[in-house]
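Tokens as discussed.
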């Protein structure tokens, strides 16, 4: 039985898949000490609904191939914003307008104890 991958290996798998799928403006936010539920948050953009869905499906496939046991995905029917929760790493895949509207980077990297991007 394959063991659950660690957070850094999971992050590398995700970033590799995002690169393969030509995801745009990818940032990684280090959540160590900021969040009890996750070590990293990855935010990226797809050019269209179809691109967002393809990116998300490819990342989920890579995570399962790497041994992630419980990958939870939300938002695939509309593909404006797809969330992939692998436990240690949370991935948000947005269409450009939706990413700009929610601006998660600002939410997590500003404030009294900001998380840092890596």
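Sequence:
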């Amino acid at each position: 039985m394959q063991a659950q991958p660690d957070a850094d290996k999971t992050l590398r798998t995700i970033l590799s898949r995002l690169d393969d799928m030509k995801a745009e403006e990818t940032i990684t936010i280090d959540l160590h000490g900021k969040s009890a539920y996750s070590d990293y948050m990855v935010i990226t953009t797809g050019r269209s609904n179809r691109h967002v869905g393809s990116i998300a499906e490819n990342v989920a496939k890579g995570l399962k191939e790497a041994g992630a046991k419980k990958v939870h995905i939300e938002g695939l029917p509309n593909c404006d914003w797809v969330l992939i929760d692998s436990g240690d790493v949370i991935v948000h895949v947005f269409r450009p307008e939706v990413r700009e509207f929610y601006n998660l980077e600002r939410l997590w990297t500003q404030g009294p104890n900001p998380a840092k991007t890596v």
